[in-house]
Amino acid sequence: MKRSIMTALLVSAILMLSAGMVFAKTLKVGTMGPLTGPYAADGNDIKNGVLTAVEVVKANGGIPGFDEIVVLPQDTACEPRQAVATANKLINEEANAVVGSYCSSATLPASEVLDEESIIMITPASTNEKVTSRGLPYMFRMCGRDDDQGSIALKFMQEQLGAKSVYIVDDKTAYSQGLADGVEKMCKAAGIKVLGHEHVNQGDKDFSAILTKVKTSNPDVYYMSMQNSATGALMLIQAKRMGIKAARLAQDAVYHPQLIEIAKDAANGVYLTFGFIDDNAPAYKEFYAQYQPKYGEPGAYSGYAYDSAMAYFKALKDAGSTDPEKVKAELMKLDYDGATKHIKFKPNGDSGSNYIIRKVDNGKFINYWNPATGKLY
């Protein structure tokens, strides 16, 4: 009798354990970005931002219905073909959503592949207008857009620098050249003379030929549209060595702690367009407290990647399902203060732009000019 009771209890325990194993679910979130190569700093920032969001969610009780949340990092190397391959890999690994990529040239083709499988993609860093202008139903963007960034750059040149001329250089990527082309058109329309628009190649380290043209042209503004901060730092070092006196204005991809680490005093005085982030906001403090001890100072897109993941997690909780249509519907309802910005998505998937001018001052980034008020901070 006792043996039969013990057997029954054992069978019951096994059945309960088996049931638990059957119904246990793992939420899979993919990340896409350059984890190796010249843009690795930004790609790893994105990965670490998502990992931080997972830790914060877990610390606050996790997500009902899931016993685990895992991050699946993929290296795009900012190469379109590799980005498509990584997108297919994430599909095969049954990722529920993807945060990425960094380069617009990677996000554009990868998003087409993910959209075919109804996988939600939120980019924290790709600013090219085409990202959200193609009508892809599951494509979202946390950062701002190049057309908005370009217009702020123009406004700053006009209202604060009083510029009459500009020399533009980009590195021929979808992001960098797209932004530079937009700035060129805006400057010409506004009556600012474009003295030259040159292109460098990704991976170049000697910019003396182009910088000689910049110095000879003697523009009021030297506009740098580079894909990453390391390239921007080398260009600033060489520009200083050559004695270029023009005001130096760069964009959000050049904005990164690495810029100051590499360029040092050559970075002092450079202006950059970047989204306004209130580091005193409660959500930012929660993000920073979890991120900094493990990964160091946040990079340019660490916070945007964190907010991208958190937005998905919030929408998933509200939807009570991983069904992409239900999650998308909840994403469109979000209206809250994130770590980097107020999050409310527009019908096309954009979350809006809030660019300001930041400046490197004595080895630190400072808020410098507010385009909304036209005044210095």
Describe the structure.
The chain is of the alpha/beta class and about 375 residues long. The chain contains twelve helices and 15 strands. The strands form three sheets. The protein has an eight-stranded mixed beta sheet with strand order 7-6-8-9-10-13-14-15, with helices on both faces. A five-stranded parallel beta sheet has the order 2-1-3-4-5, with helices on both faces. It has a two-stranded antiparallel ribbon with strand order 11-12. A hairpin with a 2-residue loop joins strand 13 (about 355-360) and strand 14. It is globular, with a radius of gyration of 23 Å. The N and C termini lie far apart (about 85 Å).
Keyword list:
globular; 5-stranded parallel sheet; single chain; 8-stranded mixed sheet
Quick overview of this protein structure:
With 377 residues, this protein is α/β, with parallel strands linked by helices. The protein contains twelve helices and 15 strands.
Topology:
Layout (H helix, E strand, L loop, with lengths): L1 H22 L2 E8 L6 H20 L8 E8 L4 H13 L4 E4 L3 H13 L3 E4 L15 E3 L4 H14 L5 E6 L3 H17 L2 E7 L8 H10 L3 E5 L3 H14 L4 E4 L6 H7 L7 E5 L6 H14 L6 H18 L4 H8 L4 E2 L4 E2 L11 E7 L2 E7 L4 E2 L1
Helix pairs in contact: 2-10, 2-11, 3-4, 5-6, 7-8, 8-9, 11-12
Q: Radius of gyration in whole Å, from Cα?
A: 23 Å
Helical coverage, percent range: 40-55%
**How far is the first residue's CA from the last residue's CA?**
83 Å
Order the strands across the largest sheet as they lie in space. 7-6-8-9-10-13-14-15
Strand tally: 15
Strand content: 15-25%
Q: Can you tell me the overall shape?
A: globular
